[in-house]
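User: Let's play a game. I give you a shape written as tokens, and you guess the letters that built it. Ready? Here's round one.
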């Protein structure tokens, strides 16, 4: 009787076991950074809404930057940077017709033509360089990682969310688009820098 009971316990114990990968074992010993969890949800619920809320019409923003007494004052008043050694991030809104889509290279771009702002370049990928979207998010900074590689992975994953959003739009020349996005700069720009979009609304969309 006792032998059968021990055998049953052994079967139960073995049934609850499984082989884990080396990566899973490493994660159990040292859990991944919490900011790396559910980045797609962070993108939808936090990053995009923050950019939309802070975005200023690009024409108004450029006028404000030109009238600022210096770049540091302009950044503090109209932009954001988590550290002084970083370029300043500005949040912008552009609306107009899609005049041109250049997808001949992986660093794709489209031109938004509007009466107020002229031709504004928006990056559409699939390769989008830089970490502007990561650096625009006020909910996380390098000090939350203290690991340059992991922080870089975090930025790339956020940019991948933007590329996925762009591809799902299936953009076409002639459509009217409303773009919410960001650009970064080290100085007051003379022309509108290329914009990385976080949200694109086509005119027929609600």
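Assistant: Ready! My guess for every position:
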């Amino acid at each position: 009787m006792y032998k059968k009971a021990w055998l049953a316990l052994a079967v139960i114990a073995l049934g609850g076991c499984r082989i884990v990968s080396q990566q899973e074992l490493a994660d159990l010993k040292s859990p991944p950074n919490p900011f790396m969890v559910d980045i797609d949800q962070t993108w939808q619920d936090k990053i995009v809404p923050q950019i939309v809320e802070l975005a200023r019409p690009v024409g108004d923003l450029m006028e404000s930057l030109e009238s600022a007494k210096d770049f540091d004052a302009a950044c503090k008043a109209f932009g954001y940077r988590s550290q002084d050694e970083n370029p300043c991030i500005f949040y912008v809104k552009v609306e107009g017709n899609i005049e041109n889509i250049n997808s001949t290279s992986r660093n794709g771009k489209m031109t938004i033509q509007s009466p107020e702002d002229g031709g504004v370049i928006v990056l559409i990928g699939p390769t989008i360089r830089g970490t502007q979207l990561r650096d625009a998010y006020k909910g996380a900074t390098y000090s939350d990682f203290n690991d340059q590689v992991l922080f870089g992975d975090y930025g790339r994953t956020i940019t991948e969310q933007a590329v996925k959003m762009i591809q799902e739009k299936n953009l076409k020349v002639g459509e009217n688009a409303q773009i919410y996005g960001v650009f970064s700069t080290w100085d007051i720009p003379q022309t509108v820098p290329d914009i990385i979009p976080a949200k694109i609304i086509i005119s027929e969309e609600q």
